[in-house]
């Protein structure tokens, strides 16, 4: 109810449905086709991770996951299953609204530093196996360099400054990286960079 009040007060946001559980969320997303689904990870009948997977696989909507803990393993699972990012439930209303707008426009809202901590916990400390890095062979040397910097948390503006490129060129590189690796957004690019060992937890 609180989220609905906050979001409903925005001129550019319409709340078109509320789901009681994960299965309900999947069915409503398929029927209503919202731009973004604000997903809780812990729900009855079907949890938010599975619901996120089904919604994104069906291309019904983009998903922004809400969680209670910034080190919650559910958050990493949601990212792996297509979420465009996650926020803590105590996120200030203004940040929540900004996050939804960002996801709707195609951006991701997970802080790379938070993703880095998650991956450090579940991959870097022996909690998971690395993926075959050959998946990155489709990238040029410059694209690999850009992917490393994305994974380290640099914005397009910072990338442009560091690589002495225009922001338009950086955006082109990022778009090509996502297309070649068949990724939805920068969040999945960060996850893949860590999962393949291109960047490791603790790297500066």
Automatic annotation (TrEMBL):
<dbReference type="Pfam" id="PF00072">
    <property type="entry name" value="Response_reg"/>
</dbReference>
<dbReference type="Pfam" id="PF00196">
    <property type="entry name" value="GerE"/>
</dbReference>
<feature type="domain" description="HTH luxR-type">
    <location>
        <begin position="132"/>
        <end position="197"/>
    </location>
</feature>
<protein>
    <submittedName>
        <fullName>DNA-binding response regulator, NarL/FixJ family, contains REC and HTH domains</fullName>
    </submittedName>
</protein>
<feature type="domain" description="Response regulatory">
    <location>
        <begin position="1"/>
        <end position="104"/>
    </location>
</feature>
<feature type="modified residue" description="4-aspartylphosphate">
    <location>
        <position position="40"/>
    </location>
</feature>
<dbReference type="GO" id="GO:0003677">
    <property type="term" value="F:DNA binding"/>
</dbReference>
<keyword id="KW-0597">Phosphoprotein</keyword>
<dbReference type="GO" id="GO:0006355">
    <property type="term" value="P:regulation of DNA-templated transcription"/>
</dbReference>
<keyword id="KW-0238">DNA-binding</keyword>
<dbReference type="InterPro" id="IPR011006">
    <property type="entry name" value="CheY-like_superfamily"/>
</dbReference>
<dbReference type="InterPro" id="IPR016032">
    <property type="entry name" value="Sig_transdc_resp-reg_C-effctor"/>
</dbReference>
<dbReference type="InterPro" id="IPR001789">
    <property type="entry name" value="Sig_transdc_resp-reg_receiver"/>
</dbReference>
<dbReference type="InterPro" id="IPR039420">
    <property type="entry name" value="WalR-like"/>
</dbReference>
<keyword id="KW-0805">Transcription regulation</keyword>
<dbReference type="InterPro" id="IPR058245">
    <property type="entry name" value="NreC/VraR/RcsB-like_REC"/>
</dbReference>
<dbReference type="InterPro" id="IPR000792">
    <property type="entry name" value="Tscrpt_reg_LuxR_C"/>
</dbReference>
<dbReference type="GO" id="GO:0000160">
    <property type="term" value="P:phosphorelay signal transduction system"/>
</dbReference>
<keyword id="KW-0804">Transcription</keyword>
